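Sat 14:20. Reprocessing the chain from the morning session after the first attempt stalled halfway. Input below, unchanged.
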Amino acid sequence: MDYNNLAETKRIQEYVANMRSAFHKRAVFSDETENYRTPAEPEPGDTVNIRIRTKEKNVDAVYLVSGEKKQQMKLINTKDGFDYYGTDVELQNESIRYFFEIISGKIHCYYNQAGITREIDEHYSFGIVPGFQTPDWAKGAVMYQIFTDRFCNGDPSNDVVTGEYCYINEKVQKIEDWNRPPQAMDVRDFYGGDLQGVMDKLDYLQDLGVEVIYFNPLFVSPSNHKYDIQDYDYIDPHFGVIVNDGGDVLTEDQRENRYAEKYKCRVTDKENLEASNRLFIRLVEEMHRRGMKVILDGVFNHCGSFNKWLDRERIYEGADGYEPGAYISEESPYRKFFQFFGEEWPYNGNYDGWWGHDTLPKLNYEESVKLENYILSIGKKWVSPPYNIDGWRLDVAADLGHSNEYNHEFWKKFRETVKSANPDAIILAEHYGDPSEWLQGDEWDTVMNYDAFMEPVTWFLTGMEKHSDEDRVELRGNADYFIQAMKYHMANMLTPSLYVAMNELSNHDHSRFLTRTNHMVGRVDKLGHESASEYTNEAVMRGAVIMQMTWVGAPTVYYGDEAGVCGFTDPDNRRTYPWGHENHKLIAFHKDIIRIHKESEALRYGSLEILLGEENLLAYGRFTETEKVIIIIHNRSELSEVTVPVWRAEVPMKCKMQSNIYSYEHGYKMDSEQYLVEDGEVVLNMGKYSAVVMTYKS
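Finished this time. Tokens:
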């Protein structure tokens, strides 16, 4: 007797008896959300229930594999054509990585964040870091980035005066024309935006739907961007309040800031500094009263040459209440805050500059415990009463000290210090490249999401590099590249980090997204200001905003994007908010899509499943047990009939879905249109450069 043939015959009979089809890999799904892991953010000692979904009666066995441990999962539920397998894992203090092994007939495969695979790739394994939790308020929160000098001038009395001081060898100037675009050396041009201006526009921001404001640096600094901090303890009076004003501006032939008496009075006078801090306190209190949060920009990798610890500009030399700076005297208490290469005091300008810039002296943490403790105290100070900010954005955070080892050591201390003062504060870092080593629960909470949002979205919808420096036609509309890039980079972050990742389309370092839609390669010095707004495609912009508001993370609007502001990369991206000249249709669109985002539990916390990817076409689902949201991005220049397998996002095989918003070539509409789901699919006629969001609720 041929026992092999007999066994095969029996297997075939079992398939027929159980109505089992071939292995259905597209039905398999799991992730790190509450849908498939309980609790999603466990503590050490917790028992975690981990689950995976397969097609009903389609697999023989499922195993959870973690390290050397392999345990068979039990069938715990069958619902709507899916089988759900689960098992418990008892956590200790150590992190774990896991994936799933699946057996279906002769099929033996694995499932991880890349999907079904024949090979084990640790990069895509799921992960748990016991005790790693990110603030609930930040999960899916709608954020708004403000470059303060360009947002709104609420108090002209604190404006920088032309000739008040010199910055990088030339005198600063007050720009009288609010609508003038930034010029080449924009860093020393001031338009007058301030905190009172933000206070005056809180009604607008609240009406827009903003939940969090992220400020570019606010501390005392000579530049308009303020990434060269002069005094970490105080808000710049040019953004705050000038109580005592006096002294002269520089004369025509003066270039040395030791003669800049007006500037010295404004930024060193303690009454001005304390009054500015009090204004900031009132602003935070008002924002908190409205249910809004505040994130400050922490620039701790370097300071500025104006900084009171160095004082290369001799602003503080001989001033009441200030110790001599390290540039002034070898005996300065701040001598070890910097690395000097010579013994040329007084006025030693031979020091280490960040990336070689002498206007950005690098802070020398490894040689000064005093400096380290001071910056840690600054981290604690601003998240504590009476300031009570809700978190920090950390500038180029991986480039802090002189070694990677020290950087990890410092950020562990920083997290402990900040979280002990305010456990609900967020620590969000600017970082390029793989952030996984920093996102293990003991350093940063998350990152500005360049790799797993801004760049893939920009390439897919526009084919443009985020600075507008390159147009890659082969990436425009390339869904395969988009999907693979997203899977790869999202796998570098655990879900607690992804939930709060800052998902931007534009910011102060990159070109405006709307400008990228015109496919003009270059910068303002070559192309001119007018080119930034020529041949732009608002429909593509709306599609990008829909992706921003429906992808995993915290959607973050760069001030003015919602009003149609254009601009090439720095400094053109820092144009003023166009009060009185806004694109009101685009603002209305932002209001509507933000409201849809905020009202949806699935868009804040749900699972993500990519359902379809073709040339210039992408469909994905966000879903919880009770809410399923389907998003279709149709970036084609012609009409198309599109069929989307919504069943993979756990939409019933036969039902009706409700349209939330439909964007098309010439605008958008909120009509409550219904879409019929048959056999788990929905068929739509999509217009040119269109996008739709639709929902099913059980």
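The longest strand covers residues 655-664.
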